[in-house]
Amino acid sequence: EAGVAQSPRYKIIEKRQSVAFWCNPISGHATLYWYQQILGQGPKLLIQFQNNGVVDDSQLPKDRFSAERLKGVDSTLKIQPAKLEDSAVYLCASSSSGQLTPGANVLTFGAGSRLTVL
Amino acid sequence: SQQGEEDPQALSIQEGENATMNCSYKTSINNLQWYRQNSGRGLVHLILIRSNEREKHSGRLRVTLDTSKKSSSLLITASRAADTASYFCATISYSGGGADGLTFGKGTHLIIQP
User: Fold this and answer.
1) CA distance B35 to chain A (A)
2) B1: nearest CA in chain A?
C-alpha cells in the first residue's frame, strides 16, 4: 500500500512570498488533515477535510493560509504572504475512519514539507 | 493549543534498558494514541488505547491509561538503538460535527546509547 505522498520536501522562500504544498493521501482514505510542526514542538492541527468538505479549520490562520481538496482526493495548502513564524514542517495525514467509528481514528502521516522563511 | 504534555522532555538510556515516558492531558478523551517520529520523518502510529481500557500491549510496548488522573505512560522494554526517536501522545475528543483531529503533546526525545 502506497503511503501519504507530499511535495516538495523542502522549500526556502523570502518573507511575504507565497508557497504551496501538495498532498496525496492513501487511496480510499476519506479524511485528510494538515498539521504544522514547529521545531521542538508537537504537530498542531490546521485543517481537517472529510472527502472534499472542510470539517474543522478553527486553527487555520485564514488571513494567510488556505487549503482545498478538490474532488476529495489530493489537497493543497497555500501560504500567502509567508511570515518568519511560518517556518515549520507541514505534515499531511489521512485516515479511513472517523467519528462514525469512534476510537479507531488512526492517522497515517506523510514525510512532511519543511518550509524555511527568510 | 496542545492537549498533552509529555514527561520527560528528553531521556537518554543505555541499550537494553527500559524507557518510560509519561503523558498528561487536560480534557476528557475518547482514546489516546502514541506516535513515534524519527528525525526528519513523519509520525508513525504505535498504539491506541481507548478510554475504557487501562492497559495495552504491543510487542515491546506497554501503554497504561488512568482517566481519573488524566495520564498515560508508554513503556518500551529492552530498548534498541533503532528506538531513538521522538515520542508523542495524542488525544481525541469527539465533539460532534465530524471534527476528530488528534491533539498532540510536545513529545519526549528518546536517545538510546549503544
Assistant:
1) 9
2) A44
10-residue averages of pLDDT along chain B (114 residues): 76 97 90 92 93 95 96 97 96 71 91 95
Can you tell me whether residue A5 is helix, strand or coil? strand
Helix/strand/coil (H, E, C) string of chain B? CCCCEEECCEEEEECCCCEEEEEECCCCCCEEEEEEECCCCCEEEEEEEECCCCEEEECCEEEEEECCCCEEEEEECCCCHHHCEEEEEEEECCCCCCCCCCEECCCEEEEEEC
> Taking the C-alpha atoms of A68, A42, B48 and B57 in order, what is their torsion angle to the nearest 10 degrees?
150
The span from the CA of B51 to the CA of B112, in Å, is: 31
Supply B10's cell numbers.
528528553
8 A C-beta contact, residue B6 and residue B107: yes
SS3 A17: coil
pLDDT tens digits, one per residue of A1-22: 679 999 999 999 999 999 999 9
Which of B7, B91, B102 to substitute to test the interface with A, most A CBs within 10 Å?
Answer: B102
Hey, are the CB atoms on B107 and A42 less than 8 Å from each other? yes
Query: CB distance B98–A105 less than 8 Å?
Result: no
CB contact under 8 A, A48 and B42: no
Contact yes or no for A106 and B45 at CB 8 A: yes
Count of CB contacts below 8 A, A vs B? 78
